[in-house]
Amino acid sequence: MAGWNADNAAGSTGQGAVTLVAGSSFCISLQNGDVFPHHPHGVFYRDTRILSRWALTVNGQPLEPLGAWTPSPYQGTYVGRAARSDGRADSPLTVERKREVGAGIVEDIRIHNYSLQPEPCEIALAVDADFADLFEVKDGRFHRVWDQTRRSRSGSLTIEAAWQGTRKGIVVRVRDAELTAEGLILRMTVPAHGQWDVRATVLPLTAETDVDAGLPTVSLSAVMISAQEQRQKAWEAQIPLPHVGDPSVERSLRRSHDDIGALRIVDPDHPDRMVVAAGAPWFMALFGRDSLLSSFMVLPVDATLALGTLQTLADRQGVKVDLLTEEQPGRILHEVRLDVGTGLALGGRSAYYGTADATPLFVTLLGEATRWGLGAGDIAALVPHADRAMDWIRDYGDRDGDGFVEYERLNDHGLINQGWKDSWDGINFADGRLAEAPIALCEVQGYVYSAYNARAWMAYDAGDRALAVDLRDRARRLKRQFNDQFWLPDRGYYAIALDRDKRPVDACASNMGHCLWSGIVDEDKAPQVVQRLMSPEMFSGWGVRTLATDMGAYNPVSYHNGSVWPHDNALIVAGFMRNGFVKEAQQLSSALMEAAEYTDNRLPELFCGFSRSDCPEPLPYPTACSPQAWASATPVLLLRSLLRYDANASLGALWIDPALPEAWGNLHTTNLPVGGARVTIDVSGSRVAVEGLPDGMVFHQATRPLLADLLADVLEMDGRA
Fold first, then answer.
1. pLDDT-wise least confident of 210-219, 292-301, 614-623
2. Which domain holds residue 265?
3. Whether residues 415 and 295 fall in one domain
4. Residues facing residue 635 across a β-bridge
5. Per residue in 278-296, is it b (16+ CB within 10 Å) or e — as a string?
6. Is 575 inside a domain boundary?
7. Lowest mean pLDDT: which of 95-104, 142-151, 491-500, 596-605?
8. Which residues, 6 or more positions from 422, have their beta carbon under 8 angstroms from its beta carbon?
């Protein structure tokens, strides 16, 4: 994933930082719960830091952190030891801060006194809001100085600021607090073996926030802060409930479900639509590639994300040529932001379109959602957008008419690389030299191949056999051409790309695993690809590296040149299973799930590529997002792939042919959505039982035929009829 700048890895939040996320709002703090502006920390709302300082002291001293944990993605608990008023060591005072993030924050502060004597206390909260843009904070550069005013009224502090006609503000409320130059202060005596409690709220100034209403009512806090909790509970009620023999695997799956729910954001123009943001903390926004792939990965457990993502991206599909934002007719955007300063946004606008893969992935996701039973009306409304996307592939994606989709940025401020490895040095030759644009990525050709097949299926379902045949033939031509020009017979793997001179970029990279997933790989070449991906140079023991260790640009602590990305590996596993390499898929899936145990069963965006034989645990990448959408979706896709779980609503068929690792044990899952029904699946070894299928759908304990082969079969049968 990428931000607005070409050097786009996420900024580090610092060692031990705690991140809470609730839709597009998030909070980053130290282990004791404090927030300081000299760290990339704060409370963020609509891509603006509304709280840059939130530091609690007791008797003039900061809390000594004892522990911090997150009961849910949007709730945090911070426990610390407080200084006593007489300054003596071994204080009997501990402080528990329970924080929930939503439109702002609600924080319940509780002081425990374990002494036999009452303890006088003075609590001070240093409060400030710099209203910095998210990217100003991320990159540590502050361009705007806001004209700020502060005013108080019986336990509340209001901070308002203006800059070039833009106004922002927050209201902070703590009952019975006194105003100080730094923030708010409270004085009390905590009884012996007793406790003292207070609630603090911070809310952005909006139409719903009545600054002059005194202290907030319970309903105001509840409406503005706990809306995320209500959304999360609704999400939990609709998603499947997995029970797995291996408790660690089960915890990873459930953590995935929780995090995906928390990463959902609302389309401001359509509050009923939920889409999945790319990841916390810096990418809590709609991304074309990330949101589409994440929705694809979780589609069998929840189709609403796929629908909301498709609809939202369709509404913002390119309609004109704009060299600054790289918008083009039919193109699906790369990223959209809510409140980015024009000095930071590419082209000075909130949407940027510089990506080569989101457009074919849009068509691929629509086709997949259709097969899982997306409503006919929703499909009909989205098909014209899919056709405009196909037109972009032909008219703009294939810049030179050679049959491949390539990219080259349209201005000096755009992204240099516009595939998923979008760091400036992400595409290189085996000797480490950088490839020069226009660049045709191998996985993008696979995505286009998938888009052709997906649109062909939709055409066939709609009764347009001629279009289905035409698109199938285009897919076949692309596959033939791809295998002719990208395959490196002397290396036994595919080039990562073709450069501006149509030379194969010969680095051995993980991208070819996506080609296995899409089906564009020739059957006779698949064994060599799998062998190379699982070689010691590529497989670290925790996952497949983005780049082999014998490549010139290899660095285990780089963003895209040797690190391990869980979502990349999940697509590789899907490709292994699609091509019948079960043992390798089991080995890779088990390695990823074992890696998750070291990060509290939450897979991060990426981790370092050091070998497992050298490092006994996966080493974290310093600036990895966590939670992050496609990393959170990884366990779901791993399970689906190993179950060989597929459906086709138009054919009335559900396929399951399980190949779970033996160590994972049995699987029992309820509440799985299939064709408008909710089914229960039990898997014990190779035995499968399915209950609750909708009328007209038949379960096959077998592997679904490859999509292209299945399409060819039905077209052939249709032609004979």
1. 210-219
2. 239-498+621-646
3. yes
4. none
5. bbbbbbbbbbbbbbbbbbb
6. no
7. 142-151
8. 1, 2, 8, 355, 415, 416, 560
Last residue within a domain, chosen from 203, 229, 255: 229
Q: Can you give the CATH number for the domain in which 191 is found? A: 2.70.98.40
Dist CA 351 CA 165 (whole Å): 22
Q: Assign residue 164 a region: left if phi > 0, alpha if psi is -120 to 50, beta otherwise? A: left
Q: How far apart are CA 2 and CA 9, in angstroms?
A: 7
At 194 the pLDDT is: 95
List pLDDT tens digits, range 372-410.
988 899 999 999 999 999 999 999 999 999 999 999 999
Q: Is the pLDDT of residue 215 over 80?
A: no
CB count within 10 Å of CB 528 equals 17
Per-residue pLDDT tens digits for 630-650: 999 999 999 999 999 999 988
Within 10 angstroms of residue 687's Cβ, the number of other Cβ atoms is 10
CA–CA separation, 177 vs 122, rounded Å? 11
Same structural domain for residues 204 and 251?
A: no
Residue 489: pLDDT over 50: yes
With a cut of 70, say whether residue 250 has pLDDT above it: yes
What is the value of pTM for the model shown?
Answer: 0.86
More confident residue, 507 or 22: 507
Cα–Cα distance for residue pair 438/399, rounded to 1 Å: 9
Residue 345 lies in a domain: yes
Q: Is the pLDDT of residue 629 over 80?
A: yes
In a domain, 76, yes or no: yes
CA atoms within 13 A on the CB side of 688: 20
Do 249 and 130 share a structural domain?
no
Q: How far apart are alpha carbons 648 and 641 in whole angstroms?
A: 16
Distance CA(160)–CA(180), nearest Å, equals 17
The average pLDDT across 75-100 equals: 88
Is the pLDDT confidence value at 213 over 50? no
201 and 312 in a single domain? The answer is no
Percentage of the chain beyond pLDDT 70 is: 92
Do the beta carbons of residue 710 and residue 468 sit within 8 Å? no
Looking at the structure, tell me whether residues 309 and 350 fall in a common domain: yes
Identify whether residues 425 and 487 lie together within a single domain.
yes
Torsion angle defined by CA atoms of residues 463, 466, 471 and 477, in that order, rounded to the nearest 10 degrees: 150
Asked, for residue 612, whether it belongs to a domain, the answer is no
Q: Which residues of 499-526 are buried (b: 16+ CB within 10 A; e: fewer)?
A: beeeebbbbbbbbbbbbbbbbbbeeebb
**Are 93 and 112 in contact, with CB atoms under 8 Å apart?**
yes
Instruction: Please check whether residues 296 and 379 belong to one and the same domain.
Output: yes
**Domain check: are 252 and 341 in the same one?**
yes
The CATH number given to whatever domain includes residue 302 is: 1.50.10.10
Of the candidates 644, 574, 566, 575, the one whose C-alpha atom is nearest the C-alpha of residue 601 is 566
Number of domains in the chain: 2
CA nearest 569: which of 550, 597, 549, 541? 541
